[in-house]
UniProtKB/TrEMBL annotation:
It comes from Microbacterium oxydans. It comes from the Bacteria. This is SGNH hydrolase-type esterase domain-containing protein.
């Protein structure tokens, strides 16, 4: 989570498109907000929801505890957990409680989706045959102006809407007036119209739009408007690689989000929208 300037903050939640993108800075600078990031490259909507405490996990012990570390096998929920094989990625590490014991849950780089999980704690190890419930320690936000949630590019599919809805519900549980917008995912260079990937992206965006209504931002439409393509993919002039955006693409995101915030009456009075 990055530091914030004084006053209200733009809270951005997501994966590498948010962690490494410049659109949050463009948006916050135009609005006069600080920024707080909860964004982790390579993570799926399920992993992000778990990290935020929006979804709990259930484990069984995968072996005996050693030096306070318990190897675990996930039992639930159903969801998307990546095969973290990129050596450049950091281990997933989430503070929380397992069966009431405080500690740190990790999923190591190189571990398959259901392998490489462990929980480290100074407390007594749980019974080996127990079903172990984990809940993350939710982050604390001091002065949120708006929450922008952008998840699902790493796992475009049916569980994303469930995960994002859980995130929104968690954010609003202690902040009934929390202002949340949800961004849609965009087609990569290898997902032209008619491909399986394009069908997943289109289906997910349709479900997100139906679920979140006016609080949904259709980035695919914004990219098409900025730079049309014949095959429905995001234009090369907006990307730095097959999926990630360059400065021009991030500027499109900032403008699209700002327009929606203005339409919702959430844009600061007297502040110009990003150009």
């Amino acid at each position: 989570m990055s530091g914030r300037r004084g006053g209200s903050a733009l809270i951005v939640i997501g994966d590498s498109l948010t962690e490494h993108g410049t659109w949050p800075e463009l948006l916050a600078e135009a609005a006069g907000w600080g920024i707080e990031r909860v964004a982790h490259a390579g993570q799926t909507s399920t992993e992000i929801a778990v990290r935020l405490g929006a979804i709990g996990m259930t484990f069984s012990a995968a072996g005996a505890a050693q030096e306070g570390r318990v190897p675990l096998t996930p039992v639930g929920p159903s969801g998307d957990f990546r095969h973290h094989i990129d050596a450049g990625m950091a281990d997933i590490a989430v503070s929380g409680t397992l069966a009431g014991r405080p500690g740190l849950l990790t999923h190591r780089v190189g571990g398959a989706a259901l392998e490489g999980w462990e929980f480290a704690s100074d407390s007594t190890a749980p019974a080996a045959d127990a079903v172990l419930d984990f809940r993350a320690e939710a982050p604390v936000f001091s002065a949120p102006a708006v929450f922008v949630i952008w998840c699902g590019r790493n796992n475009p599919g049916p569980v994303v809407t469930r995960d994002v809805a859980a995130i929104v519900a968690e954010l609003q549980a202690n902040r009934p007036a929390a202002r949340c917008v949800v961004l849609g995912v965009h087609a990569a260079s290898f997902e032209p119209v008619g491909s399986e990937g394009a069908a997943l992206v289109d289906g997910l965006n349709a479900t997100l739009a139906q679920t979140f209504g006016d609080h949904f931002v259709d980035l695919s439409a914004a990219f098409r408007e900025a730079a049309p393509t014949s095959d429905g993919t995001t234009a090369a002039q907006l990307r730095s690689d097959d999926v990630h955006l360059n400065a021009a693409g991030d500027a499109v995101v900032a403008r699209a989000v700002a327009r929606r915030l203005s339409e919702l009456g959430w844009w600061p009075t007297g502040m110009a929208l990003p150009s």
